[in-house]
């Protein structure tokens, strides 16, 4: 298995793990604060939405790519767009949680009841896992985008293929490799065979052959 396929599996798996934690933290915050006088933080709703979208889409992307070849969900251009969007949601969740944590970091001990105080402490955890999920997903997408650009500059276009079909393990092709190969194939197909006269025969004259009949 190519290293990029391993990186893909690890990045999506880590994204799912962070989404699971964000789902627990966000759902707990919403359930505790919905009936209290404390306003519901924005990161809680973002965390739940990010986790739901991740669990609806990322496992099918992994499983379908393992079972099938050429599926729409496994196309590189689809992965780049969707994983960048999920990573952006993780970044927004982490940023919102970090902003709240910075506002009431020193006041968590004064919150009542104890369940609300636990939500105050969990905000920092939501910020951490939001940023960690973003780093994993965007690290993979940026690496994939760089490889795509390098291969596209050499005439190797694999945007509509999956990572396992793209042939990245073969290295970066030489400059214009596919174009030159196509041009050479066209020239060979259009070339007409030409028979050269035997050596020693004047150009344009037929070769002399001995007559089978005796000369008188």
Molecular structure report:
This protein is mainly alpha-helical and 216 residues long. It has helices spanning 3-33, 42-67, 76-104, 114-153, 177-190. It is elongated. The chain starts with a helix and ends in a 26-residue tail after the last helix.
Can you give me a brief rundown of this structure?
This protein is mainly α. It has five helices and no strands.
Give the biggest beta sheet: none
- Write the H/E string, N to C: HHHHH
Low-confidence parts: 177-187, 192-196
Total helices: the number is: 5
Radius of gyration: 32 Å
Overall form: elongated
Give the helix/strand class.
mainly alpha
Terminus-to-terminus distance: 83 Å
In percent terms, what proportion of residues is strand? under 5%
The helical percent reads 55-70%
Number of strands: 0
Q: Residue-averaged pLDDT, rounded?
A: 79
Query: What's the oligomerization state?
Result: single chain
Layout: helices, strands, pairs:
Blueprint: H1 3-33, H2 42-67, H3 76-104, H4 114-153, H5 177-190
Features:
mainly alpha, 5 helices, elongated
